[in-house]
Write a structure and sequence with these properties.
By secondary structure, this protein is an all-alpha fold. The protein has 8 helices and 2 strands. A hairpin with a 4-residue loop joins strand 1 and strand 2. Helix 3 runs antiparallel to helix 8 and helix 5 runs parallel beside helix 8. It is elongated, with a radius of gyration of 24 Å. The N and C termini lie far apart (62 Å).
């Protein structure tokens, strides 16, 4: 008859559920992996598969009872680490969709909204389009595989224990989140400049010909100019998006590496 002691059972549970909690938290916040179109059963199965693959490579775990207060604290720390790593990559997609929303507003497509099941909110058409383009670029460069590789690497760089994440990691994540507005404006600036020039030209034309119906002419003109500019600048977005994704992956790595932490990730 096979029997287990309480200490052996506690060690087994700790060596499995602590890594599983970090992986599940990462999957729930990382782009692509957290998409609502993926069934929950698939996400849990994928997390279990990753856990079974990573557990044999783990270092010695702390001899702490998982049901104790310290064990619960370690569990919370693993969840925070996984969420922070996933959010670091989600910042990129939020910035890209923000750029699309700014462009759509200037083009006059502020009313072109539809329901986004992933975020349970109304999103603009241009923002959703750029988000899909970014998603395809992310898959092409194997960004999802690089995310999983960094997640597996985090267990050796930041092993499971009572230490948790470095304090500066939260500052790095907060500063990285502020880059949403900067990256969004940089992506939308070429089209915004063109639409600004078009609006100035329409204003001068209205002053020169007051009988011109600016609402009948301006809306289709700005819409056509915006779509034409998007078709021109879209090929130039691809290397920029790839660079942004590489920066996001580097931020993920810096967050779990105390030696790489800096006060501002933008520097």
């Amino acid at each position: 008859m096979i029997s287990f002691t309480y200490a052996e059972l506690s060690t087994f549970l700790a060596s499995f559920f602590w890594p599983l909690s970090r992986i599940l938290a990462f999957i729930s916040s990382a782009p692509i992996l957290s998409h609502r179109s993926i069934p929950i059963q698939v996400k849990i199965g994928f997390a279990l598969l990753l856990t079974l693959t990573i557990v044999p490579t783990l270092q010695s775990l702390p001899s702490v009872d998982p049901g104790s207060e310290i064990g619960f604290l370690i569990l919370i720390q693993q969840i925070v680490i996984g969420l922070a790593m996933g959010l670091a990559m989600r910042v990129i997609f939020v910035a890209i969709e923000m750029a699309g929303e700014i462009i759509g507003l200037q083009m006059g497509l502020g009313f072109a909204l539809f329901f986004d099941p992933q975020n349970s909110s109304q999103v603009q058409l241009i923002g959703r389009f750029l988000g899909l383009v970014a998603l395809l670029v992310f898959l092409v460069i194997d960004g999802h595989l690089q995310m999983i590789a960094i997640l597996a690497q985090s267990f050796s760089i930041l092993p499971i224990g009572t230490a948790g994440m470095p304090t500066l990691s939260f500052s790095v994540l907060a500063n990285w989140g502020s880059e949403i507005f900067l990256m969004g404006m940089k992506l939308s600036l070429p089209i915004l400049t063109t639409l600004l020039i078009a609006n100035l030209a329409l204003g001068i034309l209205t002053r020169a010909a007051p009988q011109l119906n600016i609402f009948a002419v301006g809306f289709p003109l700005t819409l056509a100019i915006g779509l034409a500019m998007m078709s021109l600048v879209l090929p130039y977005y691809l290397p920029i998006l790839e660079l942004m994704f590489q920066n996001g992956l580097q931020i993920m790595l810096d967050m779990i590496t105390p030696a790489n932490l800096t006060p501002s990730p933008a520097e």
